[in-house]
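Blinded run. Sample ID left blank on purpose so nobody reads anything into the name before looking at the predicted structure. Input follows.
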Amino acid sequence: MPNNDQVFLYMKEEIEREAASQEAKLLKEAQEIRDQAKKRLEAEVHQEVNTRFEKEAAALELEYSLKNATDSDKQRQELVELRDGYVEKIFGATKAQLLDFTAGDKYEEYLLGKIKEAGAKYKFDGAEILVAQKDLKLESKIVAAYGLEATVKASEKIAIGGFILVNPKTNIVVDNSLDFALEDQKEYFAKNSGLIIK
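Blinded prediction complete.
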């Protein structure tokens, strides 16, 4: 017949095993929720940009067809300005949405998740993590999320959010700022939108 100590140890092991199982399940569910929220946000931003682009492109085509100017240089200049205005309007609205996101309650989780991924992928010990001035308040959480020795500094290059990871030993720079992503999309849009004026 087992004594009380053996019963207690058996119960303790069962409780610890169940707690570990529940913890793993909760962590997996939390990651799935984060991934779904990120995909949903990306899809919404992409859909908004596409919708705005289609409306603005239709307006641009209509305006172009109504122009009867004979001076091709003047006409071309007007179209370039009109196109640039539409691009600025579209990306201005996208930037406003990104600023709203960074001011929201899901941004901190997004930022720390991206920093944790970067720490696991790049493993730059003694790295510099550059963030927007407004994100300096998260310094201790950023270092904890990175998981290695790091210094957090504000960068004037980041106005919207995200971060830039710098390895001062090798000068490798990984730009995960939302500012860079937006500019990158703007360049891609300019090259592939079909609004090239010759």
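Unblinding after everyone has recorded impressions. Helices lie at 4-66, 72-103, 107-122, 139-146, 178-192.
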